[in-house]
Amino acid sequence: MSENILEIKDLTLGVTERDGSMAVAVDHISFEVRAGEILGIVGESGCGKSLTVMSLMGLLREDVKALEGQILFQGEDLLAVSEERRREINGKDMSIIYQEPMTSLNPLMRIERQVAEPLRLHGSYSREELHQKALALLTEVGIQDPEACLRAYPHQLSGGMRQRVMIAMATICSPRILLADEPTTALDVTTQAHVLDLLKRINREYGTAILFISHDLGVINRICDRVLVMYAGKIVEAGTNRDILDAPCHEYTRGLIRSIPTRDRKGKELPSIPGRVPSVEDPKEPCPFAPRCRRAMEICHREAPACTRIDQDHIACCHLC
Amino acid sequence: MKYFLRKTLVLVLTIFSISLLTFFAFHIIPGDPASLILGTNATEEQVAALQEQLGTNRPLSEQYISWITGFVRGDFGSSIRYRMPVSELLKGRLPVTLSLGLIALVMILAAGIPLGILAARWRGKPGEKILNILTMLGISVPNFFLCILIMWIFGLILHLFTPGDYVSYTRSLPRFLQSLFWPALSIAIPQTAILVKYIRTAMLEELGEDYVRTARGKGAGETWILYGHVLKNAIVAVVPLIGMILASVLSGSIIIEQVYGIPGMGKLLIGAVTSRDFPLTQTLVIYITVIIVVTNFLVDIVIQVIDPRIRLSGRS
Amino acid sequence: MKDGRKELRIGLVLTGIVLALTILSIFYTPYHYNQMDKAARFLAPSLRHLFGTDSYGRDIFSRTIYGGRYTLLVAVSTVASCTVIASVLGLISGYVGGIVDEIIMRIIDAISSFPDLLIALIVVTVLNLGQLTIVAALCITFVPSFTRIVRTATLQYKSAEFVKNLRVFGVSDLRILLVHIFPNTFPLLLSTIVIGLSNAILAEAAMSYLGLGIQPPIPSWGRMLQEAQTIVYTAPWAAICPGAMIVVTIAGLNWIGEGLRKLYL
Amino acid sequence: MGKNHASTQDILRVEHVNNYYTKGGLGILKKAEANQVLHDVSLTIGNDEFFGLVGESGCGKSTLANAILGLIPFEGTIEVAGHAHKTTDRKEFTRHIQAVFQDPLSALNPRRTIGETMREPLMAHGIGSRQEQDRKIAKMLETVGLDASYADRYPKELSGGQRQRVCIGAALILEPDLIIADEAISALDVSVGSQILNLFNTIDVERDFSMLFISHNLNVVYYLCDRIAVMYKGYIVEQGTADAVYNHPGHPYTRLLLSAIPDMQEENDREKELLEKFKAPVAGACAYYHRCPYASDHCHKKPDLVNIAGRGEPEHLVRCWMPTLFDPAGVKEPGMEGGKV
After folding, report:
1. CA C73, C76, C79, C81 torsion: positive or negative?
2. Strand pairing of A64-73 and A4-16?
3. Is a pLDDT exceeding 70 seen at residue D213?
4. 3-class SS string, C59-98
5. Which one of A155, B175, C230, D184 is most buried, by most CB atoms within 10 A?
6. CA C158 → CA C155, C161, C167, D107, distances in Å?
7. Measured between CB atoms, does B315 come within 8 Å of chain D?
8. Do D275 and D303 meet the contact criterion of CB atoms below 8 Å apart?
C-alpha cells in the first residue's frame, strides 16, 4: 500500500448556531489521501464536504470549530500546529481551488501578481524568475496567449480561463496535494470536460494527489480513483469508483445513483430517495439516513451502524452491509 | 478617452442644470422679489426702481440668458446689501474658504485612512470598542458645538490660540494658515470619524471576500493580506465618497466661518441669506456647488484610472 | 455582537432618555423656559439649577428639555414627509423605468449636486421664515438620498424571481408594486428613516444655530448654543448641556440605525 | 378553460423570433449597443407534449422563455393556445401559460405565506370565493406532494425541494395549457431533483398540459421530454425527437455536448476526445464555425436548418452544411486540439 499524504482521524466540526449552541456538522470522520491518487468526496448540500476541505486548509469560517480529531499531514497534526507553520504549508505543500473562480481572484490585481504570489510567499525569486515561472505555468495549464493573460485582470477572462488561472496558482509551488472544492460546478459542460482533463493530467504527470469534491457522481467518476460518500456529516461509504458506482452497498449511495436520469431510464420512474436533505440543525439519528431509507429496520433507529469492510478498499456503514 | 469625453459632457450639463435650478429657485418666489426685499411699506416707485435694477420686470427666459451670459463673463451682478459688484466681494474670500476646506480635507485624509486601517486591524480586540465609541461620538457631534468646545478648551483655558484672531493671507501667509488650523480641525473631526467608519466597513467587507480566502490558502499572513490585497480594494471602494466629504467640508466651513469670524464665502453667504441679498446668495450657491461638482468629476476620473474594472470595460 | 442587538439596545436607551425628557417638558419644567432672574445669572449646575443658568438667569435644564420638542418635531415631520415623497418617486422610478426613471433621476441628481446646507439656505431665503419653511427646506435636501434608496431596493426586487413569477400569474403591476415590492423595502427604509432623523436633527440644529430656524424666545438647542458661544468662558455649562443633548440624540439614533442594518440587512 | 382545442392543435407556436439585447441606451449620453440574442427561432409544441430546450449558459434559452412569457420584447410571432402576444392582453395570456423558475427561494415572496402566494393567480383572475380558493390551494398542495398545512408557512421554513413543489403548484393552479420550466431542477440536490422529475411525470398523467423544459443537462432533457431542440449562440442548431437528437445527433455541437456530459459508465466505454478545434472566427460564418472540427470554407456562409430524417420519420432538423458527416458510422474524428476555453 502506498504512502498516505493526509490522514484524517475522527475529525469533528461544529457550527455555532444563532442562539450560541454548537451543532455538529461533520461527525467523527476518518479517511486518508494516498500519494498520487485522486480521491473524491461526493454528497449533497449540507453534508459537510466543503467544511471538511476547509478544515484541512485551516480556512474555516469564524463560526466553525474543529471539536475533535486529527489532521495528519505527513505525520504532523495540522489542527495542533502554530499559525506560522500553517502558513508555511498552505500554498506550498497543500493548496486549494474553489467553485467560484471569479470571486476567488482579486479583482484589482493583475493575473501575473496573483499567480506568482505563492512563490513570493514561500521563497525569494527575482522579478524575472517570477515572470518566467508564471508564464510557464499558464502555458502548462493550456492558456493560449499566456503573456496577454498575465497582464489581464480577472474580469477580462472567461470562466474556464479563470479556473485554469486558479489551477496554475495552486500548483505553482508543486504541492503534494491539491484540494478542489466543486471546481467545475459553475462551468459549462464542455468547459468542465477540459478542466477535468487538465486536473487529471496534472495528477498523472506530477503525482500531485487531489482531493476532489463534487455533488455530481458523473464528474467524480470521470476524474477520481477512490470515492467517499458523505451524508449528514458522516462518511457512509467509501471505495474505488467501480466499488461505489457498480456495486454500491449503502442504501443512500444506491438511491443517489438510481435517482440520476440516464439513457436507459427514459420513460421509467426514477427510484428517487424520499424526503429531504437534512440540514445541520436537524436532530441526529444513530444512522443519519434511517429516516429516508426504504429498507430501514428497527435497529437502524436505535443503534449506529458499524462500518464493514466489503472489499479491499470498499467500506460501508450500514446495518445491511 | 470616450469615458473622459462623456464625463466632461455630463459635467457641463450638470453645471448648466445647477445654474438653471438656482436661477429659477430665486425667481419662482411667491410674490415679487423687489417688494419682498423692500418690505410692505415701500412706495410703488421704489419697487419699480428696484425691479428695474434687478431686471425682474423682463420675461424669465430673457433674465436667465442675460444673467448667465453675464455670469460666464465674470459679471455676477450687484449685491443689494453691500451695494457693490458681487465679483468684488468674492475676490478676497474665495481663497480663504478654499484654504480652510483644503486644510480640513488634508486633516481628514491624513487621520482617517490610518485610523480606518487600525480599526479594521483591531477587529475583535478591546481597542476596537474604544475606537467604535470614539467614531460614533465623532459622527454625532455637530461641528459648531465642537467648535465652541475647542475654543473654550484650547483657546480660553489652555491659551493655545486666541479665538477670533484672524490674520489675512495678504498680511502673512504662515500666520494665515495658523489661524485656520483650529477652525479646520473643528470641521475635520466629524468627517474623519465618518471616513474611519467607511474605511473600516470597506476593509471588513473586503476581508470577507473569497479572494482573501484564496490568499490565505496560498499561505499569506494577516499583514500581507491587509496591505497587499485588502487596502487597495477598500480605498477604491471609498474614493467615491471623497466628493461627498468635500461637500460636507464646505457646508461645515459655512458654519465654522461664522463661529470663528473668518471672512470667507460662508460668512458672506450667511450674511446674504439673512439680509435676503438674492444676487449675492445666488452667485455664492453656484460657486460652492460648482466646486463640489468639479471635485466629483475629478474623483470619477481618478476612480477610472485606479479601477481596472471600469477602465477596461469603459462603463461605470 | 454580530446581530446588532447590542447597538440597538444602546441606541434605544440613549434616544429613550432624550424622548423621556422631552415628554416630561410637556407636563413639567422646573422653571418657565423664559423666566429670567437677574439674581441668578451664570449659576453653575446645582440641585436648584441642574444644568446651571445663562446670562439672563434662565434655567438651562428647563430650556434644554423644552427646546427638544421643536427640534424633534421638525425632524419627525421632515422625515415623514420626505419618506412619503421619496417612496412614491422611488417606487415609480424603479418599477416603471425607462424615460420616467431617467427624468426623475436627472432631477434628483441635479438637486443632490447642491450641498444639503445650501439647499436649506436657498429655501429659507426664498420662502419666509417659519417652522414650515425649515421642514420644506430639510425635506428637499433629504428627498434625493431617500429616493435613491427606495429606487435601488425597488429595482432589486423588480428583477427578483418572485416578481417575474407574479407577472406570469397575471397579477397587476400596481398590486405587485404596492403589495409585494413595497413591503420588502421596509427594512432598508426603516434604517434609512432612523439615520435620516439624526441628519434632520443635526441640520435643524445647524439652521437654528445660524438663526434661520425656530425664532426666539422659544428655545432650541442650536439657538442655545449660539447664545452660549459668547459666554462659554464664564458659563461653559450653557453650551455643554444643549450640545450634549444633541450628541446623545444623534448617537442614539445612529446606533439604532446601525443595529437595524445589522439585524435586517 | 381553454382546454377545448383539438389534439392536433399546437399549444405553442414560435415563428421567426428575433431578440436584440441593448445595453446602455436611453440616457442621452450612452450609445445603445445591440446584440442579437435570438436568431430566427421557430418551434412548435403540441398538445400534452414535453419539449426540451438544451444549451450552455448564454445561448439564449432563458431569453426565449422570457419572450414566450411576454416579459421582454421580441420580433416575430409567438402564439400560445392560439393567442398571439400582440393581440392578447397580458392577463388573459397568463391563463394559458405559467412558469417554474430555477431558484425556488427567490421565486417566492419571502414576506408572504405559501397560501398567500398561491392565492395570487386565483385572485388576479377572479377565480372562486375565498373558501373555494382555500380548497383549491389545499388540493393543489396535495397534488404536488405537500401537506395542506404548508399553506400557512413562509418560504424560508421550507427546504429547496418543497419550495420548488410550491412553485409548481402555483403554476398549475390556473390549469394552464403550457408550463415553462426554466432550469427548474438545476438548483436542487440530485435526490430532490429526481423527485421533481417524477412529479412532472405523475402530474402529466393526471392532467393535460404541455411543457417547455429548459436545461443545460442533456441527460435530464432526454429523460423527460418527447422532443428536443439544441441552442447555440441564439440559433437552434438541432431539433427533433428526443431519440433522434440524443442517439443520432446530426450537429457537431450536439455531439460535443453529449461527449462532455460526465456519466457513471467506466472510462473506456466513452469517446474521450472532445470534438473541438478552435480557429479564428470568420465574419458571417456558421455560428459554430470557430469551434467546429469539420468546418471548411463551405461554412463561411450561414447554414439553414435542413431535415435529415428519413422518409415517413418525424422531422429532424440540423443547422449544418454537412449533417450527413455525423452518421453514427461516421468518419474518423480528429483529436482534441488547443485548450482555449
Report:
1. negative
2. antiparallel
3. yes
4. EHHHHHHHHHHHHHHHHHHHHHHHHHHHHHHHHHHHHHCH
5. D184
6. 5, 8, 10, 12
7. yes
8. no
Instruction: Print the domain residue range for C157.
Output: 2-264
C5: confidence class by pLDDT, cuts 50, 70, 90? confident
pLDDT in tens, B264-299: 888 888 888 888 787 888 888 888 888 888 988 888
* Residues present in chain C in total: 265
Residue D30 lies in a domain: no
Are D266 and D146 in a shared domain? Answer: no
Same domain, D143 and D289: no
For A162, which residue in chain D has the nearest alpha carbon? D341
- Helix or strand (DSSP H, E) at B194: helix B173-207
Question: Average pLDDT, stretch C224-244?
Answer: 83
Q: Which domain holds residue D177?
A: 10-22+36-246
- Contact, B188 vs A76, CB < 8 A? no
C257 part of contact set with chain B, CB < 8 Å: no
* Bond before B59 cis per omega within 30 degrees: no
Residues B170-223 have pLDDT tens digits of 788 888 888 889 999 999 999 999 999 999 999 999 998 999 999 999 999 889
User: CA C111, CA B292: separation in Å to the nearest integer?
Assistant: 13
Q: Within a domain: residue D183?
A: yes
How many domains does one find in chain D?
2
The DSSP symbol for C178 reads: I
In chain B the domains, ranked by start, together with CATH numbers, are 16-73 (no CATH), 92-315 (1.10.3720.10)
Are the C-beta atoms of D75 and D19 separated by less than 8 Å? yes
Full-prediction pTM beyond 0.90?
no
**What is the per-residue pLDDT for D35?**
80
User: Which residue pairs from B123-130 have beta carbons closer than 8 angstroms and sit at least 24 positions apart in sequence?
Assistant: B123/B204
State the pLDDT confidence band at D269, using cuts at 50, 70 and 90: very low
Q: With a CB-CB cutoff of 8 Å, which residues 44-83 of chain D face chain C?
A: 69, 71
Pairing of strands A226-231, D50-54: unpaired
Residue A308 has pLDDT above 50, yes or no: yes
- B107, three cell numbers: 486633516
Give D152-174 pLDDT, tens digit per residue: 999 998 988 899 999 999 999 99
A230 with A256: CB under 8 angstroms?
no
What are the structural domains, with CATH classification, of chain A?
4-93+173-317 (3.40.50.300), 103-172 (no CATH)
Residue bearing the bigger pLDDT, A127 or D5 = A127
Neighbours of chain D (3+ CB pairs under 8 A): A, B, C
State the Cα–Cα distance between residues A178 and A170, nearest whole angstrom: 7
Cis status of the peptide bond prior to C187, with omega within 30 of 0: no
* Distance of alpha carbon D98 from alpha carbon D211, whole angstroms: 10
Q: Are B109 and B194 in contact (CB under 8 A)?
A: no
Contact A108 B309 (CB under 8 A): yes
- DSSP symbol at D223: H
**What is the pLDDT of chain D when averaged over all its residues?**
83
Residues of D in contact with B9 (CB under 8 A): 29
Distance from CA of D32 to the nearest CA of B (A): 12
CATH assignment of the domain containing C159: 1.10.3720.10
Across the interface, whether the CB atoms of D29 and B315 are under 8 A apart is answered no
Same domain, D153 and D294: no
pLDDT along chain B (316 residues), means of 10: 80 87 75 63 74 70 82 78 82 88 93 91 83 90 89 83 77 84 92 93 91 92 91 89 88 87 88 82 87 88 81 51
